[in-house]
Automatic annotation (TrEMBL):
<keyword id="KW-0812">Transmembrane</keyword>
<dbReference type="GO" id="GO:0030003">
    <property type="term" value="P:intracellular monoatomic cation homeostasis"/>
</dbReference>
<feature type="transmembrane region" description="Helical">
    <location>
        <begin position="215"/>
        <end position="233"/>
    </location>
</feature>
<dbReference type="InterPro" id="IPR027470">
    <property type="entry name" value="Cation_efflux_CTD"/>
</dbReference>
<keyword id="KW-1133">Transmembrane helix</keyword>
<dbReference type="GO" id="GO:0008324">
    <property type="term" value="F:monoatomic cation transmembrane transporter activity"/>
</dbReference>
<dbReference type="InterPro" id="IPR027469">
    <property type="entry name" value="Cation_efflux_TMD_sf"/>
</dbReference>
<dbReference type="InterPro" id="IPR036837">
    <property type="entry name" value="Cation_efflux_CTD_sf"/>
</dbReference>
<feature type="domain" description="Cation efflux protein cytoplasmic">
    <location>
        <begin position="356"/>
        <end position="420"/>
    </location>
</feature>
<feature type="transmembrane region" description="Helical">
    <location>
        <begin position="315"/>
        <end position="340"/>
    </location>
</feature>
<feature type="transmembrane region" description="Helical">
    <location>
        <begin position="173"/>
        <end position="194"/>
    </location>
</feature>
<feature type="region of interest" description="Disordered">
    <location>
        <begin position="423"/>
        <end position="444"/>
    </location>
</feature>
<feature type="transmembrane region" description="Helical">
    <location>
        <begin position="253"/>
        <end position="271"/>
    </location>
</feature>
<feature type="region of interest" description="Disordered">
    <location>
        <begin position="1"/>
        <end position="20"/>
    </location>
</feature>
<dbReference type="GO" id="GO:0016020">
    <property type="term" value="C:membrane"/>
</dbReference>
<protein>
    <recommendedName>
        <fullName>Cation efflux protein cytoplasmic domain-containing protein</fullName>
    </recommendedName>
</protein>
<dbReference type="GO" id="GO:0012505">
    <property type="term" value="C:endomembrane system"/>
</dbReference>
Length: 466
């Protein structure tokens, strides 16, 4: 059993009511599922009386699919209308899997069931994701602020110490690490400025906001960082190819200061590791981890280069410059794809479909679901099928509440819900085509046969001549 499990609701057959086990489909691809047709588990063919239809009386909504409840033990539980909870594997230890599947690959099987349990938990908690996120931020907000402020302070102190040590000794390795620390500070300033501009957007000039300016800011900063890295590599190459130059040996006081700064970064890395589920803390965790490796390597190369082997200092600077270059170039490419409109992974598509089919009993089917990047977050488009005789007030209220619920997901910036009354049409006809229709590939034998006919028609005598 290769790959890992994805809860893919888009593969549910439409002719029969799907069983909960039919909602779990193993897949290893990362393609976005855009055209789907999903029916709810239980659909009432006629949920309104004639009087309700004529008067347009609002239909009473069933309880939320994942409404919060608290059991006697104080643990949070969620309602499970599709019965996905019964598909969770309670024991995923290799010993238990060996008993149940003696011939299977235990590691892959454990990964399979672990991923399945995680996806089920994500599905059941998705209804209250926005509210739980707010409560979680209220609870852990001070911890996150401390991690951000402490990380910024340590980065500033480390830059000052490394700059002093680099200027006093002329070590290129320390100049490289100082440049890296300086760019960390600049990146924080860039993100603060872009976040401020994104929040202060004019509702008339930018009707849907300008959060994509953050992505553009990251790309511009990547360009600046790659320029600095290239210049550092060039200067180190000149020093490496030039005559021997012995710089001032690195003294004990700067070494101790840099070591203390590295130790502080290690402490903050451990602190941010336990808060890494928050985006800001996750970014600082990655930053501290990389800085510990880079600064330790640069300090060692500087000490050895200024005291023992002179060429190790520019060589270490070149290595650090290459690391910075490749790291920021890859980051720039990732951000470019977000602006282009990269599709969301299938796990996220399935979660949106789950939210849609469990939102209200008036939703008969989910016809189409698309999600794509418009910057850091997703734009989501969902087409649902409802009864053609349902009052306009009902269809409006159901679609609007579903739209707002989808926008409550942390990864979503905007959502658009379209209501239809049938699913027997081509969803691609609703918008102008944005992709060229690809012709089906013909067999090689047919291609060669047609080529022979064309050659026979051109050459004299009616047959190919060699």
């Amino acid at each position: 059993m290769s790959g890992f499990l994805r809860l893919d609701l888009s593969h549910v057959p439409t002719s029969t009511t799907p069983a909960p086990s039919a909602l779990l489909v193993a897949s290893t691809g990362e393609e976005t599922q855009s055209d789907v047709l999903v029916e709810p588990v239980a659909v009432k063919e006629e949920s309104n009386t004639l009087e309700e239809k004529e008067t347009g009386k609002p239909i009473e909504k069933r309880p939320n699919a994942a409404q919060l409840t608290v059991n006697a033990a104080g643990d949070v539980e969620y309602e499970d209308p599709l019965g996905l909870g019964q598909l969770k594997k309670p024991n995923v230890s290799q010993r238990q899997l060996k008993v149940e599947h003696p011939k299977a690959n235990k590691k892959k099987l454990k990964k399979f069931y672990t991923r399945q349990n995680e996806l089920i938990d994500q599905f059941l908690a998705s209804e209250d994701e926005e509210r739980l996120g707010v409560l979680d931020m209220e609870l852990n907000g001070p911890k996150i602020k401390f991690a951000i402020y402490a990380s910024s302070g340590v980065n500033f102190c480390l830059f000052v110490i490394q700059m002093y040590a680099a200027i006093s000794t002329g070590s290129l390795s320390l100049f490289a690490t100082a440049a890296d620390a300086f760019m960390d500070l600049v990146s924080s300033i860039v993100m603060l400025v872009t976040s401020y501009l994104a929040r202060r957007a004019s509702v008339y000039k930018y009707p849907v906001g300008r959060t994509r300016i953050e992505t553009i800011g990251i790309i511009l900063f990547c360009a600046l960082m790659t320029t600095v890295a290239v210049q550092l590599i060039i200067e180190s190459g000149r020093a490496l190819g030039g005559s021997h130059r012995q710089g001032e040996p690195l003294k004990l006081v700067p070494i101790i200061c840099v070591a203390i700064a590295i130790a502080s970064k290690f402490s903050l890395m451990v602190y941010c590791f336990f808060l890494r589920r928050y985006p800001a803390c996750h970014v600082f965790f990655i930053d501290h981890r990389n800085d510990i490796v880079v600064n330790t390597f640069g300090l060692i190369m500087s000490i050895v280069g200024t005291r023992l082997v002179w060429w190790l200092d520019p060589f270490g600077a070149i290595c650090i410059g290459l690391l910075i270059l490749f790291s920021w170039v890859s980051t720039a490419f990732d951000q470019v794809w977000l602006l282009v409109g990269k599709g969301a992974p299938r796990e996220f598509i399935s979660k949106v479909i789950y939210l849609s089919i469990t939102h209200d009993e008036q939703i008969r089917k989910v016809d189409t679901c698309r999600a794509y990047h418009a910057g850091e977050k997703y734009y989501v488009e969902v087409d649902v099928v409802m009864d053609e005789d349902a009052p306009l007030k009902v269809t409006h209220d159901v679609s609007q509440t579903l739209q707002r619920k989808i926008e409550g997901l942390g990864e979503v910036e905007r959502a658009f819900v379209h209501v239809d009354y049938d699913h027997d049409h081509d969803p691609h006809e609703e918008h102008k085509p944005v992709h060229d229709k690809r012709k089906p590939k013909r067999p090689l034998k047919e291609v060669m046969k047609n080529a022979k006919k064309r050659i026979s028609a051109i050459l004299p005598g009616g047959s190919p001549q060699v």
